[in-house]
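Retro notes (design track)

What went well: tokenization of the new backbones is finally stable.
What didn't: we kept losing track of which sequence belonged to which structure.
Fix going forward: every design gets posted as structure first, then sequence, in one message. First example under the new rule, 111 residues:
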């Protein structure tokens, strides 16, 4: 119809735009190896009470800076209440991530 708008129902949206979320946020100081060899990684674990395997995880340096070029930072919930944070060295030489504060956010969407 010209000039009219019908708001879609929740079924039409598939509830995609309005899921309820559970969110856990932790800041932790993590001391990684003094040197990570080429094509290798180093991991540390962080306790995040309430986290479950399958939850979505986002990790970053707490100060907002990027890791050294060539270091890939990622994380996953690997057991109940446990998030594993990993630095992977994607270069041909060794790199040092050092000790940094990291922000770990775990999110669970419930539909």
């Amino acid at each position: 119809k010209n000039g009219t708008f019908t708001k879609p129902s929740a079924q039409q949206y598939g509830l995609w735009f309005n899921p309820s979320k559970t969110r856990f946020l932790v800041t932790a100081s993590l001391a990684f190896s003094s040197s990570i060899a080429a094509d290798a990684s180093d991991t540390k674990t962080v306790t995040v009470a309430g986290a479950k395997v399958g939850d979505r995880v986002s990790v970053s340096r707490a100060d907002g800076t990027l890791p050294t070029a060539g270091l890939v930072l990622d994380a996953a919930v690997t057991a109940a209440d446990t998030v594993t944070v990993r630095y992977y060295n994607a270069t041909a030489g060794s790199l040092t991530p050092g000790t940094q504060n990291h922000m770990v956010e775990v999110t669970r969407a419930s539909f």
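Added context from the reviewer: Strands lie at 20-31, 41-47, 56-61, 71-79, 82-89, 99-110.
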